[in-house]
Structure formats: structure tokens, C-alpha cells
Specification:
The chain has 167 residues and is α/β, with parallel strands linked by helices. The protein has one domain: NAD(P)-binding Rossmann-like Domain (Rossmann fold), CATH 3.40.50. It is 32% helix and 20% strand. It has a five-stranded parallel sheet with strand order 3-2-1-4-5, sandwiched between helices. It has a three-stranded mixed sheet with strand order 6-7-8, covered by helices on one side. α3 links the parallel β4 and β5. It starts with 6 loop residues before the first strand and ends with a strand.
């Protein structure tokens, strides 16, 4: 938490990550932007979506991290975030079985999410801060998920206007 609001890392600044960062920055959250290509994070910073960082460990003090990479890269990205921060971690992946099973060891820090939002368009240039408003976001806690971690992830999605459903 900062003086202006909660702090979050968004890694993967395409349509979903850019839209999430824009929405949270618009609410006064402190948003750190990370992308495998640093110039994309810098472009998002220029748009006012947060502060670009080049290394995940620069986000060591955030409360929540949201992995917005393609589904095939989520597990590795979550592990990288977990090794570099103490944050509660969630993702935006559309498939959960492999992700949740491979990340079960992080049960106390990882809460899967699947916002039912998107577009046929891709990339930061199509980011929309209203993308998640009115959509359903499914969260997938496991038995080891602590109530505070689940509450933090649900609060993030509700803050940007999403309706949260637990699965």
C-alpha cells in the first residue's frame, strides 16, 4: 500500500495487462510495469499506466502481482515473480488445470484468476481501462489458499468493476 493506493506489479503488458494497468493506475494504485521487451513497459509508462521496470526484483515491495503473459508462459512467470517478491500472485490465464497443479506449492501465495474479458485485438495499443468493467472474473483458490490472499485478489478485480465468482 502506498499513500495513493495499493501497489501492484503487472507483468506482460499486452491487451490484458495494459488494460489492467490502465484501470488500476486510473484508480490511484501504484502500478509497476514489466514486459519481456522493456520498450513495451516504457510505452505503457508513457501512456500513464504506471512505472516501467526492467527486472522483476524491482517490484519486491508490491502487495499483488498479476501475470498477464500468454498461457504457456504463466507457470514460469509466476515462479520468477515468487522468487523475487513476497507478493500475492494471480494471473489472467484462460486455462487453469496445468497452471494450478504446477503451482500448488505456492498455494499460500498464488490465486488463479480468469477474467472473462478480452478482444480479438492484441497488444498494448488496444488496451482499454474499461475492459474488465462488468465482466465476470473466476478465481480458483485451492485448499491452502489463505483467506487474506483470496480477499486481496478478489478486491483487485472488484476495484476495476469485475464481478468475482469463486470456482
Amino acid at each position: 500500500m502506498t499513500a495513493s493506493g495499493p501497489s501492484v506489479l503487472v507483468t506482460g503488458i499486452g491487451l490484458m495487462g495494459g488494460s489492467l494497468a490502465a484501470a488500476l493506475a486510473g484508480l490511484g494504485w501504484r502500478v509497476l510495469l514489466h514486459h519481456r521487451r522493456p520498450e513495451v513497459a516504457r510505452q505503457a509508462q508513457a501512456l500513464g499506466y504506471g512505472t516501467a521496470i526492467e527486472r522483476i526484483d524491482e517490484a519486491a515491495d508490491v502487495g499483488i502481482a498479476v501475470v498477464c503473459t500468454p498461457v504457456g508462459a504463466i507457470v514460469d512467470a509466476v515462479r520468477t515473480v515468487a522468487a523475487s517478491t513476497a507478493a500475492i500472485i494471480t494471473d489472467v490465464g484462460s486455462t487453469k488445470n496445468r497452471i494450478v497443479s504446477e503451482l500448488s506449492a505456492l498455494g499460500d501465495r498464488f490465486v488463479g484468476s480468469h477474467p472473462m474479458a478480452g478482444s480479438h485485438r492484441q497488444g498494448l495499443e488496444h488496451a482499454d481501462p474499461g475492459l474488465f468493467r462488468g465482466c465476470v472474473t473466476v478465481v480458483t483458490p485451492v485448499a491452502a489458499t489463505p483467506a487474506p490472499a483470496l480477499a486481496a485478489v478478489e478486491a483487485l478485480w472488484r476495484a476495476i468493476g469485475s464481478r468475482v465468482v469463486r470456482l
